[in-house]
UniProtKB/TrEMBL annotation:
Protein name: HNH domain-containing protein
Location of the HNH domain: 198-253
CDD domains: HNHc
Species: Roseivivax isoporae LMG 25204
Pfam families: HNH (PF01844)
GO molecular function: endonuclease activity; nucleic acid binding; zinc ion binding
Length: 276
């Protein structure tokens, strides 16, 4: 069953983590499992998630590190607080019905300091349909676990740099904001916490466009370039989902975008009649 659905699992993971995924069927135990890792690191040099049936209607996911993962573990140990916060938030977003155990650590403030790190998630009472069950455990458990590792390692999607004149001083910071908005883990966590309905106009792209509706965008409520004082970045509170139209409309005012309340007022009174 697992071997026949590797494509499904790989697609979910690559979208959620922003990294290429490698995997192999593991028949070394009584119940066949699947090993999953980041393709560029190879199985021995990075984190590996082992997916295996558990009980009658469940799966166990065990995350550990390969035998030669010392360099990657050192890289993770030096991750900046912002990346650590997002990684922990991704794990915390897993449904409470999933039993998570982090060997020797509290699940709220875990950290990776050695290759002995191990995280286990037990998912029970899944739907009887094998494909639905595997899709659910992949999307809701394996994806956030591997996405947390991708964030700590530092996989990023880098936007092309605009070649035109900067619109104002600090254009380099604006580029950083755009890159963070494109971070697939930011988008993943924002959607897991807030859903895929635009918080401004209420449109649900999936309900409108069906399979083509995965177009919700992620918006920083307070652009990083405009912060007067540094403060911890929290995707759970600093990001909201917007449809492409509302997101573009918010950014038509520069350097400070329209607030969501201001945009709602404009939408309610587009001709400015209320001011007359």
């Amino acid at each position: 069953m697992l071997s026949a659905r590797q494509t499904l699992i790989r697609e979910e993971l690559e979208v959620g983590t922003g990294a290429a995924i490698g995997m192999a069927v593991d028949g070394s135990k009584t119940r066949t499992g699947l090993r999953i890792w980041f393709a560029d690191l190879e199985e021995r040099h990075g984190p590996v998630a082992e997916l295996r049936p558990h009980g009658l209607k469940g799966y166990a996911v065990t995350l550990r590190f390969g035998a030669f993962a010392g360099e990657v573990v050192r890289l993770i140990a030096g991750a900046v607080p912002e990346d650590v916060h997002l990684a922990r938030a991704l794990i915390a977003s897993i449904d409470n019905s999933v039993e998570i155990e982090i060997q020797g650590q509290d699940t709220a403030d875990w950290k990776i300091t050695s290759g002995d790190f191990r995280m286990t998630a037990i998912v029970r009472n899944l739907p009887r349909d094998p494909e639905i069950a595997l899709t659910q455990v992949s999307r809701d458990t394996i994806v956030p676990m591997m996405a947390a590792m991708a964030e700590l390692i530092g996989y990023d999607i880098i936007d092309e740099v605009d070649q035109g004149e900067p619109e104002y001083e600090g254009a380099e910071l604006v580029s950083t904001v755009r890159r963070r908005e494109r971070n697939p883990r930011n988008r993943l966590l924002c959607i897991r916490l807030h859903g895929e309905i635009c918080v401004c106009c209420g449109v649900d792209p999936r309900a409108t466009y069906g399979p083509a509706g995965s177009i919700i965008e992620v918006h920083h409520l307070e652009p990083l370039s405009l912060r007067k004082e540094p403060r911890p970045y929290d995707p759970a509170f600093d990001l909201v989902p917007l449809c492409p139209n509302c997101h573009r409309a918010v950014h038509t005012r520069r350097p400070e975008p329209w607030s969501l309340d201001e945009l709602r007022e404009l939408m309610a009174d587009p001709m400015g009649k209320a001011a007359l």
